[in-house]
What does this fold into?
Amino acid sequence: MAGLVRLVLILFIGWIAYSLFRRWLAGTSSSAGRKQDIGQMVRCAKCGLHFPRQEAFTKHERYYCCRDHMQQDQH
Ligand SMILES: [Zn+2]
It folds into this structure.
């Protein structure tokens, strides 16, 4: 019976270590992704202004600085 308890304990510790490792891995990859998003700049297809990609309006794979420019640019 003592052997079974030890086995369960080892599995439990292993599972904790694995989940902590997964959490650490997810944390490092998501922070790297955020850094990449901030660094990426795009150009408005209407006025040529450069701005962060996360603030862009997109239509037909083009980027626009605002909704007005997206609607004005007809292609
Ligand atoms: Zn614009």
Observations:
- The chain is about 60% helix and 15% strand.
- The chain has two domains: 1-39, 41-75.
